[in-house]
Amino acid sequence: MKLNLLVVDDSSTMRAMIKKTLVLTGLPIGDFWEAGNGQEGLDQVGAHWVDLILVDLNMPVMGGLEMIERLRADPQTAKIPIIVVSTESSQARISEITGQGIHFIHKPFRPEAVKEIILEYFGGNLHADE
Question: Can you give the pTM of this predicted structure?
Answer without folding.
Answer: 0.91
